[in-house]
TrEMBL record:
Species for this entry: Tumebacillus amylolyticus
Domain of life: Bacteria
The protein, known as: ABC-2 family transporter protein
InterPro entries cross-referenced by the UniProt entry: ABC-2_transporter-like
Keywords attached to this entry: Membrane, Transmembrane, Transmembrane helix
Length: 268
């Protein structure tokens, strides 16, 4: 077995073990786990109710039907669900850096950014993932191709969401505590990623596809799931790859500026 293959196998084993332990920890208190997940499901269905009432009065909004908006909710919630379940620290990096907790990760023989990202699981996000597949069951394309397209949409959406927010959170390396700024960026990104892209015009729409690339998530139900737009699909994949590479590069540059917090902690 070559060195590269062995390293890849070790990394996959590490990721699977970490996710397994995160889930085991989350399910230690079964009742609390069930309530948290169930509450998130109910919270999400409130939006379904409001959109349902809206579309009984206005069946078409700038070319978007009820089915399209429901799939936008499914993709937006699903992208967040994948990000928060498997890479739960993607919105916690600023706090980890500013409080000196990064020392714990630097002392271990694992890729630092990847280790930070997978070391936390947000339990409520499991409710978002369940919500996604319930909406898909109600409004999605149930063919094998339709399901494969949903999975690819979740992969592209979650990749953009994770690594764009890693970029925002990495500002802590350069400006000090950026926890508040990072949280505001995340809230803005998540909110607009679940609304029909075509309700935005002019400079607002330009921002959604450049500065705050949430438009590449919210337009997936139209440009990829409903209609095949080669330009949009390949641009979305390119943006996902580009944001990922940029996030790793910025985080690596930031590490060189990082000053130890001299914090003594232990991870089991």
């Amino acid at each position: 077995m070559s060195t590269a293959v062995r390293k890849t196998q070790n990394l996959l084993d590490f990721l699977l073990t970490t996710w397994k332990l995160n889930l085991a920890g989350a399910m230690e208190f079964r009742l609390s786990f069930s309530i948290t997940v169930g509450t998130m499901l109910i919270n999400n269905f409130v939006w379904v109710f409001f959109w349902g009432v809206y579309f009984t009065k206005f069946p078409l909004v700038n070319g978007w039907r009820l089915q399209d908006v429901m799939m936008a909710q499914a993709v937006g919630c699903g992208a967040y669900g994948v990000a928060a379940v498997f890479f739960g620290n993607f919105i916690g990096i600023a706090n980890i850096v500013s409080t000196g907790q990064l020392d714990t990760y630097l002392a271990q023989p694992k890729p630092v950014l990847l280790h930070v990202l997978v070391s936390k699981m947000t339990i409520s996000a499991i409710g978002d993932l369940l919500f996604t597949f319930i909406l898909y069951g109600l409004y999605g394309n149930h063919s094998p191709l339709g399901f494969a397209k949903l999975l690819l949409a979740l992969l592209v959406g979650s990749t953009i969401m994770v690594f764009f927010n890693v970029l925002a959170q990495s500002l802590s390396f350069f400006i000090g505590n950026a926890e508040g700024l990072g949280f505001q960026v995340f809230n803005a990104f998540l909110t607009v990623s679940m609304y029909p892209t075509d309700i935005f015009r002019g400079i607002g729409k330009l921002i959604l596809f450049t500065v705050l690339p949430a438009g590449f998530i919210s337009f997936l139900p139209i440009g990829f799931l409903r209609d095949w737009s080669s330009t949009f699909v390949w641009t979305s994949i390119a943006v996902a790859v580009g944001v990922t590479l940029l996030a790793f590069w910025v985080f690596r540059i930031g590490l060189k500026r990082y000053g130890s917090g001299n914090m003594m902690t232990m991870r089991m």
